[in-house]
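Just scan this pair:

***
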Amino acid sequence: MSKKNHHKRNFYNSSRNNTFMIQRGAGQNSQIMLSISILVSGREETTEKCIASLDHLRSTVPCELILTDTGCPAGMQEWLQQKADKVLKFRWCNDFAAARNVGLRAATGQWFMFMDDDEWFENTDQIEEFFLSGEYRRYQAASYTVRNYANLEGTEWRDTSLIRMTRRRPDTRFLYPVHETLWPLLDVPKALEDYVHHYGYANPDPEVQMAKRKRNLGLLLPAIEKDPHCMKHYLQGVAEYQAMNDYESGYKMADAGIANCIPGREENDRYIEGLYAAAVRMRLRAKRSLEVVRLGRDFLDHVELSDLAKASICGDLAVAYGELGEDKSCLQYLWEYLKWNKYFDENKEIWLQQETVILNSCFENFQYRKVMGWGLAASLSLGDADSVARLLTRGALVSWMDAARHWYVMTTPQRREKWQNDFRRLIAGLGIASEPGRMPQAVQWEEDGQPYSRVRQLYEVLTMGEEDSEAPERATGQENGQTVSAERVDGWQEQQALGQQAEAAAQGTQKQSTEGDAVAREMAVLAVQLKDRVSLLIDSGQYQAAAGIIEQLKAYFPMDEELLKLQERCANHVG
């Protein structure tokens, strides 16, 4: 605890927003470099983690800690006063920006940083270096990463860089009652890699998640009615509908926002870009491929879009054209999408200037794998071996199994059959087909220096064990779905694919018993790989998929102790 916590307290009332403040160390205001403001609502455990994660920063950089109490129980009051330099009492009025502005007005530091009481830093090394090195003098704003976990185990998450720090100016303020935003956005921000853990959306209970989305919409819809020309409200509404899998309401809200946008309102600029992309994305999720093509091309040709909005629409057009069987157009927009991917990899600060909800998922793993999978399917359909090989250089083959899965699983049996036939024709045309009965080389995916080696290796892995069987039909997965989510479909297909690998390998062992030790060694390596993957499925909560693979493996490895332990881990979660 820094010495400033023991200074004499100064108490005063503020009639504005009905706040009451407790302040320490008022005479040191001119020395404060960073004001840290946190909304606290009574979550004692996470609030303690949050404040403790700032200890090192507060001990190295001249800081003040401001806590705005939006509804803590009486028992927390004294504890908050011991932890902070200023404690402000705020009467909650369903307006997050209003609560944030109370802390902002009480701040005296050169810079202002804000966070929530259910977030805590892994470390603050880069923030400390930013101020101690003097680098902060060259910037007006900075971002850090919020790691939003998808499960309570902390094995799945989405990282989002958010502008949470700004040089404090007289016109600095927060806008919007929900998903509040700092304004004005100052210059190009400095992207810091420090991150906070956030489990606010990790509750596995779908009813809890739905209640949170409905709460947000309950704030957004009246805000839209009150101010129908605010694009931020429309875009956040789209994001809430997307999380609820209500894609029709999502694209209708995006369309309404675009129709109500008026020129000359500066804070709308970045959010209208997100709405154009959202109007396309929500139609893609709603399986309206023809509308995606019509609208997406129209936006690209006739609307002045940000680069990130262009990238998002190009990716969605690649998928839509793939679904329509227009392979050349699919590849055309795939290469545009990948061009933008490279550009933003090299220009992180421009990404920060342009990203919003919807746009921030442009190159996220789920979307990237889907676009790449459809690009691979189009290349195979065209018999374009060079495009296939070029695509396969963009990641490890294990990641390509995932990418292909998004095309291969989430489609009809007819398309799956076409996909395999296209791959067979390509392999046959190249003259590099595997020898009959050859074991799958899943454990030997390193390049061997031969032409199209990755093409051959991916073919071996994805087709082994499926030559004589039709893949079962499954319902289309939905991103963040409540019934069959994309990750759950992945888990199901992983069960199928890995189980088939195990079965094929075991059959190979029986057929090739004369090869003895060599086959046994390969089988043992494959078993280790499969068990590792089962463990990952369990860690991510995909117990049904894991249990299915375990049952198949036990048929070939009945006395394996690791399998028995994995089965015990699943037992409490699978009926």
About this structure: DSSP finds 22 helices and twelve strands in the chain. The mean pLDDT is 80. The radius of gyration is 27 Å.
